[in-house]
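D-aminopeptidase
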Amino acid sequence: MNMLSMPHVGVLPAGVLGTIGDVAGVTVGHCTLADGPIQTGVTVVRAHRDDPYRHKVPAAASVINGFGKSIGLVQVEELGVLETPIALTNTFGVAAVAQAQIRAAVASSPQIGREWSTVNPLVFECNDGYLNDIQALAVADQHYVAALDAATSRFERGSVGAGRGMSCFDLKGGMGSASRIVNVARQDFTVGALVLANFGRLPMLTIDGVPIGRELSARKQTSTQPTATKPEQGSIIMIVATDAPLDSRQLKRLSMRAAAGLARTGSVYGHGSGDIALAFSTAWTVPHEADFIATPPLLSDTRLDPLFHACADSVEQAIIDALWSATSVTGRDAHTRLSLREAAPDLEQLLKRHTT
């Protein structure tokens, strides 16, 4: 198949990599489980290479629709920092990954839970049960460790890691990423997004403003696709990173703008969809043992609009990237999700028809 170039959302430029890896220090690693009915995995996002418990980064989350089983959000909301890497997996893998995070933190800092307070593991999830035998509880400690060890600024997207068994708009979903560069107060800042896309129904699919899902859904459906009349279910996790100096309150505002990018792709945040966004800044850290915390000069709230714009664009682009990068997967009970480009071999013509 001719490799069609992915549309570039908006007018803001992307970074060199075009992923969340453009935010200096941020790395992503995957561990993929692909064996017959087991189609799942773990993805880990690291804000930096230092010990995350001893060198916390400011963060905040927005729960757009709370149909989810994540762990760790309550303390992030209260304290506004991350204490572990961010982990993504399937719904029933949350407990195993959280335990792995705790073990890794204690191994690095034996004072945790004794001389020091306990650690707050942070695990996000989506339900990959259509393709993956989620009841097998296949995710274990070693898969988190493998994903953590594999973290790099250059990483795969699509049907990998936590995204292996995910569906998006009744097509193959998974991991997607994007970045945007903005100039604020005469300085360039980067905003990067990583998404675990597992939401939507085909008629809703919109790519860069083109409602191609309507046309695709009108075509003959294969026996492996559910009917398009079912309500929106699934979930999406949106991780937003920036090198702009923001505090947790400002990051809360930034994370909410991920919803704008999500909506542009056709989502209405359905009843059964868990839609959660988390934003963090790499511009400064919070030392665990500090009496006083030195912060850099923070951007004024009146200068945040370019970052809001970059967040919305990068999330929308990351969702498109997840669809673009995904490969078709067959899993549990011969359930199959076709990739966007396999389901729509005339995708280039469809997009051109609406843009010319």
